[in-house]
Amino acid sequence: MAKERGLISPSDFAQLQKYMEYSTKKVSDVLKLFEDGEMAEYLQGDAIGYEGFQQFLKIYLEVDNVPDHLSQALFQSFQTGYYIEDTVREDVVCLSDVSCYFSLLEGGRPEDKLEFTFKLYDTDRNGILDSSEVDRIIIQMMRMAEYLDWDVSELRPILQEMMKAIDYDGSGSVSLAEWLRAGATTVPLLVLLGLEMTLKDNGQHMWRPKRFPRPVYCNLCESSIGLGKQGLSCNLCKYIVHDQCAMKALPCEVSTYAKSRKDIGVQSHVWVRGGCESGRCDRCQKKIRIYHSLVGLHCVWCHLEIHDDCLPAMGHECDCGLLRDHILPPSSIYPSVLASGQERKTSKISQKTMDDSSLSTSEALRIDPVSNTHPLLVFVNPKSGGKQGERVLWKFQYLLNPRQVFNLLKDGPEPGLRFFRDVPDYRILVCGGDGTVGWILESIDKANLPFVPPVAVLPLGTGNDLARCLRWGGGYEGQNLGKILKDLETSKVVHMDRWSVEVIPQQTEEKSDPVPFQIINNYFSIGVDASIAHRFHIMREKYPEKFNSRMKNKLWYFEFATSESIFSTCKKLEESLTVEICGKPLDLSNQSLEGIAVLNIPSTHGGSNLWGDTKRPHGDIHGINQALGATAKVITDPDILKTCVPDLSDKRLEVVGLEGAIEIGQIYTKLKNAGHRLAKCSEITFHTTKTLPMQIDGEPWMQTPCTIKITHRNQMPMLVGPPPRSSNFFGFLC
Description:
Blueprint: H1 10-22, H2 27-36, E1 43-44, E2 47-49, H3 50-61, H4 68-79, E3 92-94, H5 95-105, H6 110-121, E4 128-130, H7 131-147, H8 152-166, E5 173-175, H9 176-184, H10 187-192, E6 207-211, E7 230-234, E8 240-241, E9 271-273, E10 297-299, E11 305-306, E12 333-335, H11 336-340, H12 351-355, E13 365-367, E14 376-380, H13 388-399, E15 405-407, H14 408-411, H15 414-419, E16 427-432, H16 434-447, E17 455-459, H17 465-469, H18 481-489, E18 492-505, E19 519-520, E20 523-527, H19 528-542, H20 550-567, E21 577-581, E22 584-585, E23 595-599, H21 624-628, E24 634-635, H22 638-641, E25 653-658, H23 661-668, E26 676-681, E27 683-688, E28 692-696, E29 699-703, E30 706-720
Parallel strand pairs: 14-15, 14-16, 16-17
Antiparallel strand pairs: 1-2, 2-3, 4-5, 6-7, 7-8, 9-10, 10-11, 12-13, 18-19, 18-30, 20-23, 20-28, 21-22, 21-27, 23-25, 24-26, 25-26, 27-30, 28-29
Helix pairs in contact: 5-6, 5-7, 6-9, 7-8, 8-9, 19-20
């Protein structure tokens, strides 16, 4: 069916998206090369042949070889059934159509995409297109919508209405200004083009497309959207509409801060019709017949769901419900001008002031949280965990105040840290992988905060080693976020050690890769495991589409480990380096090693405990590490090392020797307990004599001969999840 319509398959489209995610090129950059650059030889009027099309993909996607099946499928998709003119030959495709399509898929503002696509077809640069040329743009939009699993039958009439509005005088031509004005007021089109809604508190909904697994009803026309059909849902208030009803939707009821003095201090319920997913009234405990019509009300802040008839029995004041410990209600956030006593000429603060982006700063808004609560500052990396990161962002925008939730891809963590700077007793939740957690911890270091908040982790990455150690799990799989927030309420604080790493290269003609980090949160290693990680990293950058799931990543890692076990590229590592612990040389003469790992936490490579289990002596409540005392900065005695328990906050590192890739695999699969325990120390120095693979917290690089110094930097308060029901090897946290 896909080929009949001229569409590539869903798997090919997913592969294409993965390539685009890793590419830094813009369509406009590639287009210049074809119009008046080194690729001009492939241009045949406004068309390119298959060879030129392949060159376009190689440059745009930044890969050496695009798989033949993907190139051919894409090329054919631009030939089949999508041309307005019959004059285009079968062996070429229109460069404008290709450029238009890819520009629509790119990141960026919808307004910029609309302007770029218009100018693509405005070949004489007079700012006017005829209706057939505009139709060609819309065709590419429709193709993209189909790939993104939109209901095209609903989108087509919306775009047709837009066309009528554009050509209001029936002249058959459209100006750039008319095109932009019509596009900017067509909400479903803006959402399709990737509209990034900015929180403005002016009644504007934050729409996202949603396909509903159960029948729901449009908040505007009150008719059914239908099982499996797509509509638009507001992230803030769960107001739901058909695509075609979005332009007429009532304003969003959510205000994220108090706009007058009377609203400060006491939060009121904010009721929105529909959205009663539980199907049961929280007031009378009877069923809400959600499958028959638009019935029931839900409160945006406490998330209570009630019958319409039960509303009079509800009080005016809202306590923010089960998640009140985490929520900053609007009544707790207000403009600083209201607190300063300054009076305005009007009782209403100007909307321009309210909409300004500076309201996210601590200078413009003041926070006065509800007493005995711990407001949660949430950082989300939408790129982590495939599309999970984006879904987590949407869910937290509804569960909490949207002003507590920050998209790290927009402005990084600094705006959130500034906004919460003076908030007492707040916590931070980082939604992402180990790299995202390290980014936030480093930003907290640099922010020089008066109060350093404890940090919890919602694991969205691949390895998630730190999250495993802190008992937040090895990966988020769509669990109830409300339950996770309740677990966070009972979490405990542990002060995790962090370590500085200084790499001093020797003078050689060889060039090293850049050192990824200067701080170690999880682990550092040299040799076999870093070699496997480096090969994995290189392959993933070259063929990103092959690494789009945790299972695939593990299979690739297994393949590289098998290859490393055969070739042993780091054999006799002890002959290529020397190790000093607290100034004393570590004897490796009796060892035959291919790798050395320096551990701050007892989890590497997505769950491997290289140090191994340690059985505590009976009655040892605080662990053997406490008994060693502060004077035991260096431990190398094998008998004592057998009883040492890893501890995130003992200001010591565990040093482990690895015999090879096979041993790492045995430890991961629990066929072997641990590597060779070499030492426990508070400072370590490596001197290398040849280029070796290394890694910090899972980020690998190749390093020429050098000296590496690892010293204690500081401690960071981290939140540890509640104890698991079944025992595991992280017993030191219990």
